[in-house]
Fold:
Amino acid sequence: MVERLSEAQRTALVELVPEWRAAEGRDAIVRSFRFPDFNAAWGFLSRVALLAEKADHHPEWSNAYNKVEILLTTHDAGGVSRRDVALAQAIDAIAP
Structure:
């Protein structure tokens, strides 16, 4: 089973993904992205979907035209885990 990060672990690991912030009212991290148009946003979501499927760790997300918001939490752990940080890093690597 994947374990939820302690506060000390979270502080250390979340520093590895500085563009991500704590989600309001949830034990999760979130990041917003903006693209030139819907096509670019949808293409990014498709690439993230492939990453998520490979990691067997699926984000919560929303898309409105050129805006994408991705929220990461590990439901089995009841909050942020190393899996969320790893997926955030992979997402950051493909982000424009």
Summary: DSSP finds three helices and four strands in the chain. The chain has one domain: 7-94.
